[in-house]
Specification:
The complex is a heterotrimer. By secondary structure, chain A is of the alpha/beta class. Chain A is built from ten helices and ten strands. Chain A has two domains: about 1-80 and about 170-255, Rossmann fold; about 90-165, no CATH class. By secondary structure, chain B is mainly α. A two-stranded antiparallel sheet of chain B has the order 1-4. The chains are: A alpha/beta, B mainly alpha, C mainly alpha.
């Protein structure tokens, strides 16, 4: 069984079938991109994997353990992190506070320990902040650590979200259109960043949902194409992106739009 | 709550100054003003502060509406009063510790019911949760009125004045003032710790970004249960303090009107801020006291004085203050001073 | 004998249930139009009772005139309430609206007590005080006025929401505010009209229920809570549901008070509420929210 094994998942929303028996597999150290025209079910797939919605049918396994039907909070504690299509940060909180939220699963000091500021909780807090500063520095955000999240330009907000997602040292990282709203230079930077992250975390698998084909080509080991909730194609990026069926799916969508 | 990074780095400066000023004022007050009525008012204010620190955590930090904190206040009061008054502690040689043990018993009782309320909060949101907590408040109020054997019914319950910690007896206003406010400062310190910790961040995420919280591994269920239990425990601690101070307790001190008054204090003070809660409680409790004081002054005519002494008049002002603050000063009193992004 | 009891409890329960239903309808309409809860609804009923008292007892005007004047006063107060307090706060989130309406409730309750007195005061029944004998039970004739009025109100509201322009536009704005705005329905106007209708309902409940519930006293807050409880149990989004919820609550109260305990009556009502919320939070009669 693969490290991440999404097996024949189906998702119905009332009368609408968003996903119709899709299977995806990923191994540690792999970056797999999911592409497809709008409405193909890409974000739905991510939502299913991280547990925000339950599957209608099918199973999902992570490292051999079934995560089908588990709550998103449980799945997160098993080592799954994600970013959102629109950067979801806590607006009224600083960069640092937002980032610290990402460390939640790596810390465990409880209610009472924190209530009375016991040494265990203080030690954890110190450790968290040091690690957080390291991360901020890696992302080039250290000088902005005390700024409020909603005062940041959008590109930086995306970076903070990414930093928060990897703060928990996830085994599986789900990225939902991380390049959306970024210009060419920023996207290239993102590509470099993703490659470095993969090198630094060889046991992490990354699933990337994207529309930006340059990014997809640059970083993916494998590409999966979804169309109308079905898997249309799968394979190395070069092959898939030149597949006539895939091109037609995109063109067809463009004609209808 | 403010920025954690600033808080943790400058905790030394602003916070220490505030704490020092507070402790200084508190220590000095009973030494300067020996008037037992004034001290008693100060004690009651402190007691409400304890409840409100919990309510502020619930409402301001975690976004959970509870209109039932007065019920826990009452549960703590009656449970502790029964335990201290009805058990023969002397036969175990524990007379000096009945207050502590009785209070602990009240807190345990409240914890169980607080957990239940937390369970409701997991399943319900917004107005439905408000309604459920209100229902809880009414149910407890009815029980306090009807369960004569435990509570003495509408006639009230006479509490044995046994507040003591071993040989140290708190048998005058001054000592009780110090006891109460020592607990207030301790609760203040503890809730601030909580707010600035990973728990506090989790609570804040649950308040407005619940889905994000879940995806980061924060369990709304676990934290809602914890915070409701904690707020109930604080309220019940305050209840026991109250019971052993006023000696005679009745259901009207723990009714829905009180729950609403607590809400006003926390909101007007500044939701989500610990100092705001203190300020709001002090100011809003002092307001009717001040008006009552004016009613004593010969300066006003008898009709005006009668009006000023009227309880309905005080509550009317409460309502007006709440309305004005919600409409015009949503950040509360604390927001007025910090002048931050209104 | 048993039949007498049945009649007594049922009619009594239904008449107070109708008052709860009217309050619940007020909650329903404001919730429908704005998504917010107006905690002052019960106090508005009390205020209308006081106003009716002024016109009907103190000024001793004839009943139809009292009814009309109370209704108009209620509507004017509702308009002022919405304009001054609600309009500003609607965008600030549900908590703020709840808090403002709690504030208004406190103001009305205490203002009322200051102006009209703290004690409960009686109000004359519309058709006299002599009890009607039905199957051996002594029934307060006002019960029929209340039940009759509620029936008329329910029918009138139904017609209003389905047949009139304003009514249908409120329905439209409630289910899809953006679309409504596009076709020229102003959400501000919708909110305002919803508050006016709810205030009119409060006025009806206030004056018609006054002989039964008495005017003033501690009933205001409790009425709001029970009306809201009835609305929530019945299903806030369903007008029929809230009415049924009110009737159910009224009947429950009377039967429980008689068979189980008068003192614990409210505790039992609210326990039922909590159970209902736990197991079917969208309401017993809601159409699968």
């Amino acid at each position: 069984m693969a490290f991440l094994d999404v097996h024949e998942v189906m998702k119905d929303f009332g009368g609408l079938r968003a996903l119709d028996g899709v299977s995806v597999a990923a191994e540690p150290g792999q970056l797999i991109s999911i592409i497809g025209p709008n409405g193909a079910g890409k974000t739905t797939l991510l939502n299913l994997i991280c547990g925000l919605f339950p599957v209608s049918r099918g199973e999902i396994y992570l490292a051999g353990q079934s995560i089908t039907g588990l709550s998103s909070c449980r799945i997160a504690s098993l080592g799954v992190s994600r970013t959102f299509q629109v950067a979801r940060l806590m607006r009224d909180k600083t960069l640092m506070d937002n980032l610290l939220l990402g460390f939640h699963t790596r810390t465990k000091s409880g209610f009472l320990a924190n209530l009375f500021s016991l040494p265990s909780s203080r030690g954890e807090e110190r450790w968290m902040r040091e690690r957080a500063r390291e991360l901020l520095s890696f992302f080039g955000l250290l000088e902005h650590e005390t700024e409020l999240a909603d005062t940041l330009p959008y590109g930086r907000q995306r970076l903070v979200e990414l930093a928060r997602a990897i703060a928990s040292e996830p085994r599986l990282l789900l990225l939902d259109e991380p390049a959306a709203g970024l210009n060419e230079e920023e996207t290239a930077g993102l590509a470099r960043l993703l490659k470095v992250i993969l090198t630094q975390h060889p046991s992490m698998a990354i699933i990337l949902v994207e529309h930006d084909m340059k990014l997809v080509l640059e970083v993916s080991e494998k590409v999966v194409v979804l169309n109308f909730g079905n898997k249309l194609a799968e394979g190395p990026p070069g092959a898939v992106l030149n597949d006539p069926q895939v091109i037609e799916a995109y063109l067809g969508k463009q004609e209808n739009d | 709550m403010g920025s954690d990074i600033q808080a943790s780095a400058k905790l030394s400066k602003t916070s220490w100054v505030a704490y020092a000023v507070l402790v200084g004022l508190l220590t000095a007050f009973p030494l300067i003003d020996r008037n037992t009525y004034h001290l008693s008012v100060g004690i009651i204010i402190g007691i409400y502060c304890i409840i409100n620190l919990g309510l502020n955590l619930l409402l301001g930090n975690t976004g959970q509406i509870s209109l039932g904190q007065a019920a826990f206040f009452g549960i703590g009061a009656y449970t502790a009063a029964n335990l201290t008054g009805r058990i023969n502690w002397a036969s175990w040689g524990l007379e000096g510790w009945s207050f502590l043990l009785g209070t602990a018993g009240g807190m345990a009782m409240a914890a169980i019911l607080g957990f239940f309320l937390g369970f409701l909060a997991v399943r319900l949101r917004g107005h439905y949760l408000a309604m459920a907590t209100l229902g809880f408040q009414i149910i407890i109020s009815v029980v306090m009125l009807e369960w004569y054997a435990l509570t003495g019914g509408p006639g009230g319950f006479q509490v044995s004045p046994v507040a003591a910690l071993g040989p140290l007896k708190f048998n005058n206003e001054m000592r009780y003032f110090y006891l109460t406010w020592a607990i207030v400062v301790l609760s203040l310190w503890a809730t601030r710790n909580l707010c600035m910790s990973r728990i506090g961040r989790a609570l804040y995420a649950i308040k407005e970004y619940e889905q994000l919280a879940e995806v980061c591994g924060v369990s709304p269920t676990k934290f809602k249960l914890q915070i409701f239990t904690f707020a109930a425990v604080l309220a019940s601690l305050a209840g026991s303090l109250y019971a052993h101070h006023v000696i005679s307790i009745g259901p009207s001190s723990f009714a829905v009107e009180i729950s609403l008054m607590l809400l006003v204090m926390v909101v007007v003070g500044g939701l989500g801020t610990v100092w705001g809660t203190l300020i709001g409680t002090i100011v809003l409790y002092s307001l009717p006291e001040f008006i009552r004081y004016m009613a004593e002054l010969e300066y006003f005519s008898p009709e005006v004085r009668r009006a000023l002494a009227d309880n309905n008049y005080h509550l009317l002002i409460f309502g007006l203050v709440l309305a004005i603050f919600v409409l015009f000063f949503p950040r509360g009193l604390v927001g007025l001073f910090s002048g931050r992004r209104g | 004998m048993f039949l007498t009891l049945l009649v007594q409890l049922t009619i009594g329960g239904m008449s107070i249930g109708c008052i709860y239903a009217l309050v619940a309808l007020g909650f329903h309409i404001i919730y429908k139009g704005t998504g917010a809860i107006n905690f002052a609804q019960g106090e508005q009923v009390m205020l209308s009772g006081f106003i009716a008292l002024t016109f009907g007892v103190i000024l001793a005007l004839p009943l139809p005139l009292v009814f009309l004047l109370t209704l108009i006063s209620g509507i004017v107060c509702g308009w002022i309430y919405e304009r001054v307090a609600i309009r500003k706060i609607l965008n600030a989130g549900h908590l703020s609206v709840i808090l403002v309406s709690v504030a208004v409730a406190i103001i009305l309750e205490n203002g009322g007590a200051l102006i009209w007195g703290k004690e409960e005061q009686p109000f004359p029944g519309f058709s006299g005080e002599t009890a009607l004998k039905i199957l051996g039970a002594g029934i307060n004739p006002q019960s029929f006025w209340v039940i009759g009025l509620t029936l008329i109100v329910v029918v009138a509201l139904h017609l209003f929401f389905t047949r009139t322009n304003l009514g249908t536009s409120i329905q439209a704005a409630a289910s899809n505010p953006t679309a409504a705005r596009l076709v020229g329905i102003s959400p501000e106007k919708v909110v305002n009209r919803c508050f006016i209708i709810a205030s009119a309902l409060a006025a009806c409940a206030g004056i018609t229920g006054a002989p039964i519930t008495l005017v003033g006293g501690p009933l205001g807050t409790l009425l709001a809570l029970k009306g809201f409880a009835a609305a929530v149990v019945g299903g806030l989004k369903s007008s029929l549901g809230v009415v049924l919820g009110g009737l159910l609550l009224g009947l429950l109260e009377f039967y429980v008070a008689f068979y189980i305990s008068q003192g614990y009556r409210d505790a039992i009502s609210f326990s039922v509420l909590i159970f209902a919320l736990l197991f079917r939070p969208q309401g017993l009669f809601a159409r699968g929210d």
